[in-house]
């Protein structure tokens, strides 16, 4: 098969990838593409292929051969390019986490924290999350305008994940800057290496502080498992904290941001949800399907030749699964490009699939439910403060989220 090699770092593509993905789904099961880092990869775009790929053990998280350009730690986490100028040791301190490894390491690392993320444990956080949402909206009292991302969608999940881990949330502005750079990956340019280094220092300081003064929190629990039981290495410990901090908030920011945008670009949807709150759980699933927070799953590497339809991906090649594209596949969803708040259970892939299925899905759903309920209650007249066409999507191949969401309250 001959195809043009498409550039996934192209700003035009990233601003509006849906029509491009739709064309690719029609023309073949996989696409040859250049990642923003310059590496070539195969992109899987159809729902059935994506679902199968995410459970295929031949598509491994095993590190790329060194020198391939994508092996450095957090950059791989972020699904983007490495910072070649990173200080030594930084890569290992953030890359030895469950999302970057195969079984049996994956099984061991995931088990260490999975009990903290069950539906029941997460439901117990409801009153505290409601309180955080209320306080954030209290801060907006008396204002007519705000950027809903800055004022609400960003601080809510960061505060929740910090409390869950047992870390202070006061450094969250620094944290936002670093994690913006980390998720933009190679597209953050020269900001990436310093951001990764600053995050690693932050995590090391947190661990030192909690070692000195253990508490009854997840971080102290993980330190105990490391120091007393030797069930994970120091790099695995810092990488776990890195993963939970990054995965636990940037994504949820986008669920709240993208969902609010979808409701406000056509206020009939907002009014419909306001009139029938029973639609909310299904509406959240539809936001996840229609404009999911994660554009592409993190990279896999083919460990053997893998046939997808009539194309063979050779062993050793990187593979990218586009969740955004799979979730708009019209072979899977009738009128896939229509937002339908009452769409029957869409079984979307927004949280991934298989062994790496999102550990935080119950938490993300609960946070979203609380966030939308609070917004509908407190700001029934909420509307966009700029034309929807003026909103900008943040660059980056990993996440799909708005740069800002100016609203009238
Ligand atoms: C994994 C999406 C929120 C923690 C994943 C994956 C996706 C995803 C697609 C799999 C990636 C892959 O296979 O390459 C989302 C979305 C969220 C969200 C859309 C919000 C709407 C959270 C939250 C946490 C979290 C709140 C909390 C800590 C994780 C972890 C993994 C993961 C630890 C790795 C699981 C593993 O490798 O076994 N997430 N996530 N996520 N997510 Fe989330």
UniProtKB/TrEMBL annotation:
Keyword Metal-binding: yes
Database matches in CDD domains: CYP107-like
InterPro entries, sorted: Cyt_P450, Cyt_P450_B, Cyt_P450_CS, Cyt_P450_sf
Record carries keyword Ligase: no
Source organism, top-level taxon: Bacteria
Swiss-Prot/TrEMBL keywords: Heme, Iron, Metal-binding, Monooxygenase, Oxidoreductase
Pfam families for the chain: p450
Family stated for the protein in its record: Belongs to the cytochrome P450 family.
Name this polypeptide is given: Cytochrome P450
Organism expressing this protein natively: Actinoplanes ianthinogenes
